Amino acid sequence: MNALSLCCLSIHHANRALVGPVTVHLPAGQTLGIRGRSGAGKSTLLRAVAGLLPAELWVQGELHVLGSAVQSWTHGDPRWAALRARAVLVGQSPVVFAGSVLANAAFGLRHLVRLRQAELRDRACAALVEAGLWDEVAGRLDTPAHTLSVGQRQRLCLARALALDPALLLLDEPTSALDNAARDVVEAAVAGLVARRTVVLVSHDTEQVQRLCGHIIDLRVESDSAAPLNPA
Fold first, then answer.
1. Which positions ≥6 away from 1 have C-beta within 8 Å?
2. CA pair distance 70, 65, nearest whole angstrom
3. 52-78 pLDDT, tens per residue?
4. Which of these CATH numbers, 3.40.47.10, 3.40.50.300, 3.40.50.2000, 3.75.10.10, describes 29-51+82-231?
5. The whole model's pTM is what?
6. I need a surface site. Which of 13, 71, 88, 185 has the fewest CB within 10 A?
């Protein structure tokens, strides 16, 4: 089964094509890298998959996410909320909420699933392990999240997404704001997801995409922008 299928998908503003056409068929459990220069539409394409495009943008073509044909869903369609709990987007700027490290890891889970407190904590802690952050925060789970470094915050955002047990994880430039040391740690966490999660990674870093992804597409700034899906 394909976790993600795009067939001749393009994204438009009024009569202007901003992205595409793009054709991708990504099987479940594999990793897709989307790379290209600034302005090529990488983040826009990822937001289309998550149903988070601005209202003034519209899509043409076919878009199937986790088996659902979503290209005709409107912005206010309640089905998007349910899908976004299974296809989770992690943005490039690490956003932490007021409260502790543990509360941040459990934030989305707390709002979407009815769990006992002990179960909530267990899932949040397991997500911190999977995100490669546990060893650094295990002794300070009640510490305010804003005291973490930028690289730790990025992995905390990843843990918050992983706590939902997503079928599809969408990562938008997860290391763009990090120094080389922090980038390497985040990359190691992402690499650990391979074969356990379906991951789509957006990055301008060609070498990073090559390191982490089994399949790659290149977006160019021109309107006929997408190169075909290729093995890395």
1. 27, 28, 67
2. 7
3. 999 899 899 999 999 899 988 888 888
4. 3.40.50.300
5. 0.86
6. 13
